[in-house]
Amino acid sequence: MAKVLVVAEIKQGVLKSSTAELLSKAKSIGAEAAVVAIGSGIEGLVPELVKAGSDTQYIADDQSLELFSAGPYAACVVEAAGQFGADQVWFGFSESSKATAPRVAAQLDAACASEITDVTLGDDGLQVVRPAITNKVIQRVKINTDKLVAVVRAGAFEIDESVSGSQNVVKLDAPAPDLKAVIKELVSDASGEIDLADADVVVSVGRGARNEEGIALVKELADDLNAGFGSSRAMVDAGFMPHSKQVGQTGKIVAPNLYIAVGISGAIQHLAGMSGSKVVLAINKDPEAPIFNIADYGIVGDLFEVVPILREELKKVKA
Ligand SMILES: Cc1cc2nc3c(=O)[nH]c(=O)nc-3n(C[C@H](O)[C@H](O)[C@H](O)COP(=O)(O)OP(=O)(O)OC[C@H]3O[C@@H](n4cnc5c(N)ncnc54)[C@H](O)[C@@H]3O)c2cc1C
Questions:
Q1: Do 46 and 57 contact (CB within 8 A), yes or no?
Q2: How many CA atoms, within 13 angstroms, populate the side-chain half-sphere of residue 215?
Q3: How far is residue 140's CA from residue 120's CA, in Å, rounded to a whole number?
């Protein structure tokens, strides 16, 4: 039986949904699933980790682990992988995963696959699927090493609510501090806006909105929907939107339940960041815009007319 260790994604003490998604997937391929949770004051998350489908919970809970640091975090994952006898270690997609996964792979002498969208265990052995070259090709990669470390693309797997685990907590000692790099402080975007990566709905604005006035109009739609507010690169390059809001190949990868692209043409580099969305609605005045090729719903029209109508209709629905 395969043994999959999932690295819990915890942000400000809150367990992210990617952890349950990965545990559900591990169970669906018939693997024994364990989880490793790293941080400070996180022991209270154990019931959630059990409910999410883990059968063993490796907990590294120490004051020194309050702020993310790739070296010590990797040491915890390697320790848990060793104790569990994991043949696969899965991370959800995040900046910290991208920094930790290669360190873990090197220490475990494992293959390292990034941005995978599927894992299969069949007669052909272990294989992973990953989009490459801005989603132009889908690679199926056979893993020839005994161990695999993988970073899973956001939204690739779904939570199976029927999955559950059993409680078996193993406490890990705090690792030695990393003397080469010490994180002193994390400065986060203090805007208080909904994080794009976590948002259930994302509304993104493109060059079609032209200027600040157009952006404000689209932002109002995002606010009505309690949605994350994203952008195409065109609006970032023009200085209208911060890079932290850019969706795409060189920005954030999002996979919300609903993605609304407003005045965005649908360049392949933009699609690379949002094509995993469950439902896509595009608003564009050009019926030939490539975004309509991947949209589930399309509105051909001038966004300056369409967005206010949408907002009015939303108001009615809410009332
Ligand atoms: C290496 C590289 C990396 C890149 N990375 C990214 C990335 O991460 N993210 C990203 O987004 N792009 C990225 N790009 C840029 C990408 O190629 C496109 O240039 C960009 O996505 C275009 O943004 P846009 O759709 O807003 O603008 P445009 O392509 O100019 O499209 C604007 C759209 O708005 C429509 N429109 C105009 N007026 C209205 C109106 N009144 N009402 C309704 N619709 C209207 C037009 O019909 C058009 O379809 C990258 C490019 C390169 C080369």
A1: yes
A2: 18
A3: 10
DSSP β-ladder status, 148-152 and 32-39: unpaired
Q: Map residue 67 onto helix, strand or coil.
A: coil
* Mean pLDDT for back-to-back runs of 10 residues, the chain (319 residues): 96 91 96 97 96 97 93 97 98 92 98 95 91 87 96 92 96 88 75 80 98 98 96 98 94 93 97 94 98 98 98 94
- Give residue 258's domain range: 196-318
Using the 3D structure, point to which of 171, 205, 233 is the last residue of a domain: 171
Distances (CA, A) of 288 to 13, 265, 274, 291: 46, 9, 19, 8
When divided into structural domains, the chain yields a total of 2
**If you measure from the C-alpha of residue 206 to the centroid of ligand 1, how many angstroms do you get, rounded to a whole number?**
6
Our answer on whether the CB atom of 214 is closer than 6 Å to any ligand 1 atom is no
- With a 6 Å cutoff on the Cβ, whether 211 touches ligand 1 is no
- In the three-class reduction of DSSP (H, G, I as helix; E, B as strand; rest coil), residue 270 is classed as helix
Q: Is 250 in the pocket of ligand 1 (CB under 6 A)?
A: yes
Does a structural domain hold residue 177?
Answer: no
pTM, to two decimals:
0.83
